[in-house]
Amino acid sequence: MRPTAILTDIEGTTSAIAFVKDTLFPYAASALDEFLAKRVNDPAVKEILAQVEELVPGEAPATALRQWMAADAKVTPLKTLQGLIWEEGYRSGALKSHTWPDVIDCLKAWSAGGLRLAVYSSGSVAAQKLLFGHSEAGDLTPLFSSFFDTRIGGKREAASYAAIAKALAVPAGEILFLSDVAEELDAAKASGLQVCQLVRAEDGTKPSGRHPEAKDFPAVTAQFGLPKAS
Ligand SMILES: [Mg+2]
Questions:
Q1: What is d(CA 222, CA 65) in angstroms, rounded to the nearest whole number?
Q2: Phi, psi of 196 (to 5 degrees)
Q3: Are 214 and 199 in contact (CB under 8 A)?
Q4: How far is the CA of 11 from the centre of ligand 1 (A)?
Q5: Coil, strand, or helix at residue 59?
Q6: Are 148 and 159 in contact (CB under 8 A)?
Q7: Fewer CB within 10 Å of terminal CB in the chain, N or C?
Q8: Spacing, Cα 103 to ligand 1 middle (Å)
Q9: pTM score, two decimals?
């Protein structure tokens, strides 16, 4: 069945893994101390620090956050904080986002053709909106009806995809999930979603052989009969 909704990952799928690793993560790490000092009275920052203290009692929150950053830990308060730091960077113009050149035209064509578009990434929803809000083609956030992060569950857990289908009010079998990571596709498939692995040579993605594959978004369009970019 032709998908009526697209659920897409970001890193390695719409955007270069290198952008996150080489630009976003180092920026957040370098800005951490100054940001915490500057926003010490910000209720959102206080809430994040309280969550960190709950997870690692007795440790200085800044130390825990730095360790998580170094380990690329998928911890919700870290992701939320990184979102706030990047927000400031995007707004100041210090940061600009990356999407692969084939992505934007396809997203626009899919949306114009009536497909619902949603994002599911381990980066926070705030970070997702910043990334798509500051693309080379301007603000792409209006193309998406929903944004999901790890608050709905881990990306390698089948239950997360069932919860997303329910939140979208779309039958699981009508949703096509795009990701570069085979284990995420395994989990989505287990909940009945259609799946496709983006195998972008530039990102060094290795095909798993377990799922349909596409080298870019036009290849997804062709393989699943989606509305074509003109
Ligand atoms: Mg990915």
A1: 43
A2: -150, 130
A3: yes
A4: 4
A5: coil
A6: no
A7: C
A8: 14
A9: 0.82
Spatial contact of 5 and 227, defined as CB atoms under 8 Å apart: no
Q: Compute the distance between CA of residue 15 and CA of residue 103 in angstroms, rounded to an integer.
A: 8
Each residue's pLDDT, cut to its tens digit, for the chain (230 residues) gives 899 999 999 999 999 999 988 998 999 999 999 999 999 999 999 999 999 999 999 999 999 999 999 998 989 999 999 989 988 988 887 888 999 999 999 999 999 999 999 999 998 898 899 899 988 788 999 999 999 999 999 999 999 999 999 999 999 999 999 999 999 999 999 999 999 999 999 999 999 999 999 999 999 999 999 999 87
Axis-axis angle for helices 61-71, 25-38 (nearest 10): 170
Structure tokens at 221: 């369009």
How far is Cα 11 from Cα 48, in angstroms, rounded to an integer?
A: 24
Residues with CB under 5 A from ligand 1 (ion): 9, 11-12, 180
